[in-house]
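I'll show a sample.
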Amino acid sequence: MFGGWSVVISSPVFAEEGGSGHYLPGYMASSIDLSLSNEAVLVRLIANSFEGTSGNSKLPMAGQIVTEADIETDEVALDFRWSPADEFADGWVFNAGVTFPYISMRVSADIVDETGGQDTVSRRVVSEQSGLGDVVIQPLMFAHTINREWWGDYRLALYAPTGDYELGRLANTGKNYWTISPSLGFVHIEPAIGREFSVFGGIEFNSSNSDADYLTGTQAHIESTFVQNIILLGGFTGIGVSGYWYQQLTGDSGQGAVLGEMKSQAIGIGPVLSYRAKWHRTKLAAELKWLHDIEVSGRFEGDTISIKVRAEY
């Protein structure tokens, strides 16, 4: 009966606390994400917008179980990287970096009461929160010039729990746990015909969210981008396609994992527009990307729009 918010429900269950992890699937997928290949300073402005839903799946979120959850997340981040010197070995350059995200989130969902052996919806909740997200520290980054057409990227990222988190509040700008993420990438660019093919992959190892007593399982992902560039507007303008595959390798655990150790997975694809030019001594690059989730299990399903602007000094 809706008047008292007492609705019996039967639905599939989610994995991955909050319906998402630290890493945004498809986030790092093209040459605009490469580390510096020479002594320089790099600044990137990154904006991501995601709208998604859980449908009638049950989802663990901040110590509560929800269903019919809708989420809107807007993130603006400043990414700084520094390469203190040119090659320390043949074709190898060291980088370090840090990313500061600011997140605005809105979540609306039905709270599920699982007492008495029968699931019921007790009430509809709307939660909003804005603030600093979880800072990403990248102490080890290595750019590798393999040859004139191939580049490698190898790095270790640490997601620190600097964002705000409150048990029982659905919208939180932080995850309340650490994540260690090693990754590697390869970019192939054919200058003569302007084609770029990139592939990146990584794994996320998470610590436990002590407030919720919830450990999200290890996650893996592969992203790839194909772009055709042409000379236009004083630089190189590219159009192409990007996609990702995302899989949770181990199940969730802890006292808070009351829905069991289901494993999340997702596949997404979408178009990419890019632009590159040089202004005086500054290398500029920009990328606009839309990713649409086409097959999702155990996560929020929706659409991501991202904009990246890169300046290398």
Q: What stands out?
A: The radius of gyration is 21 Å. The longest strand covers residues 92-113. The CA atoms of residues 152 and 186 lie 5 Å apart.
